[in-house]
Specification:
Length: 191
């Protein structure tokens, strides 16, 4: 039987030992990822012809109209590495005091069981899961950064993308698409 597209996230959250192989396979059955990325030195630009100088409509159109098929292969590969890296640092950061405090708060708040909290073994509503997972992903400050502007893009983008993807049972390609577009916009706006 075919795995539901959102199941890979729940699988990762509960089976830490199978993290890398499970995620790489679910995102792309032919993936052969090795290692992770510490610094994304150069964003493979998918907005090369987009001028952000006040043209909000162009920005909105770019976000709404960009599809997975339009992404350069280098951007897809970089995205997969960034997702793997995020899960690695989030799992490592799950035991930190900051993560424990936010996770306890999120658990106390309850919420609909729609999105997993990394390293915590429970599910909650997407906004609360994104809060906890963003905190956990940055707890050790080992998350990725963009050399063109001092930001940590994955920890700001992926928690929301993953939480909403779980709710919508989005495919791995949709997760890659959303992250790549979010990363591109964050770096273009920030630089």
């Amino acid at each position: 039987s075919k795995t539901k597209s959102g199941d890979y996230i729940a699988e990762i959250l509960t089976e830490k030992g199978k993290l890398l192989s499970s995620l790489a396979w679910k995102l792309d059955p032919n993936a052969t990822l090795k290692g992770t990325t510490d610094v994304i030195e150069d964003s493979t630009s998918i907005t090369a012809n987009l001028e952000l100088g006040g043209d909000v409509k162009a920005l909105a159109d770019f976000v709404a109209e960009t599809t997975y098929r339009q992404l350069p292969q280098d951007a897809v590969i970089a995205t997969k590495k960034a997702v793997l890296d995020f899960f690695g640092v989030a799992l490592a950061g799950a035991g930190e005091d900051t993560s424990k405090i936010i996770t306890a708060y999120v658990k106390e708040m309850g919420g609909n069981s729609e999105a997993g909290v990394i390293g915590a073994g429970f599910r909650t509503s997407p906004p609360l899961a994104a809060l906890a997972n963003g905190t956990t992903g940055h707890a050790l400050d080992y998350d990725d950064c963009f050399s063109g502007f001092p930001i940590h893009p994955s920890v700001a983008i992926l928690p929301a993308v993953l939480a909403l993807a779980e709710r919508a049972r989005a495919s791995g390609k949709k997760v890659i698409e959303a992250y790549a577009v979010g990363f591109e916009i964050a770096c273009k706006v920030g630089s």
